User: Which sequence fits this backbone?
């Protein structure tokens, strides 16, 4: 029996024609590329992926759970999610618009609004008015994205995304808060872990902190998070720290000492070693890279 290989889907895989935002943001009005990538084999996404079905019918498997898609269905997936379109379940007129957003691109502001209810998957059918709001956000971002030579294009897209996602979060909350009681025990555990992570990753980097808050052993929490997300608790913490640190280094004059204090490290030296181990260069080298 041939084993399935899990590939990783990066933002850049959906954004081959754009150098400026290649690794950070992609938006498309065709679903052919993402279907083509995921129809042959399961793919693990390494970004936030938001999809809006505008017509037709399809089916996507998300972490082994099949989800039907039809007009006005909205799905938002967090990094680490494994997806695959089901080829036999896609109608000829199926159309999905999507955005792919890197963690680093949004880490300059409160990223939790881009991870609805701190859950790994958000999936709901928007009503007519909600659908208009979501599509207005999408069209607004697409217009700015296509303005390739625009001054401050990157920053404009970031701030448009931020303001729009506040509206998106409110819509999502109207739907998914009603489903919280239907989560399995494991799903609720992962959900609660993400909530803690968003609040504390800057200051709490020990797995035991999260385990104690969830009334679990460190070993059990580590096992569940690894099984459900493909990453360990520490990998999630360090990924968020590195992403935010990169954004701060590139977008401000923050010193390494200030970074160390911000992320609760003892001193600039210890933070510098941590950063270099995971990025391959020092913070100052990255600033001028």
Assistant:
């Amino acid at each position: 029996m041939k084993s399935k290989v899990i590939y990783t889907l990066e933002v850049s895989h959906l954004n081959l024609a754009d150098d400026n935002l290649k690794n950070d943001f992609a938006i498309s009005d065709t679903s052919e590329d993402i279907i083509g990538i995921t129809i042959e084999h399961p793919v693990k996404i390494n970004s936030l992926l938001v999809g809006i079905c505008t017509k037709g019918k399809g089916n996507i498997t998300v972490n082994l759970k099949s989800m039907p898609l039809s007009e006005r269905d909205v799905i938002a997936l967090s990094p680490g999610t494994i997806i695959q379109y089901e080829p036999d379940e896609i109608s000829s007129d199926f159309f999905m618009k999507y955005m792919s957003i890197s963690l680093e691109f949004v880490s300059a502001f409160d990223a939790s609004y881009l991870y609805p209810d701190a859950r790994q998957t958000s999936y709901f059918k928007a009503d007519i008015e909600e659908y208009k709001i979501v599509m207005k956000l999408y069209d607004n971002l697409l217009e700015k994205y296509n303005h390739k030579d625009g001054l401050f294009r990157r920053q404009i897209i970031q701030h448009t995304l931020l303001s729009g996602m506040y509206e998106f979060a409110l819509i999502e909350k109207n739907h998914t808060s009603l489903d919280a009681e239907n989560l399995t025990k494991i799903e609720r555990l992962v959900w609660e872990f993400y909530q803690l992570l968003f609040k504390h990753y800057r200051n709490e980097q020990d797995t035991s902190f999260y385990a104690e808050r969830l009334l679990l052993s460190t070993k059990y929490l580590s096992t569940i998070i690894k099984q459900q997300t493909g990453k360990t608790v520490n990998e999630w913490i360090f990924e968020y720290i590195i992403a935010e640190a990169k954004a701060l280094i590139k977008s401000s004059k923050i010193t390494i000492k200030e970074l160390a204090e911000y992320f609760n490290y003892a001193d600039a030296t210890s933070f510098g070693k941590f950063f270099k181990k995971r990025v391959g260069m020092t913070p100052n080298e990255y600033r001028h890279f």
The longest helix spans residues 153-176. Residues 184-287 form a domain with the Arc Repressor Mutant, subunit A fold (CATH 1.10.10.60). Residues 1-5 have pLDDT under 50 and may be disordered. The first strand starts at residue 7 and ends at 9.
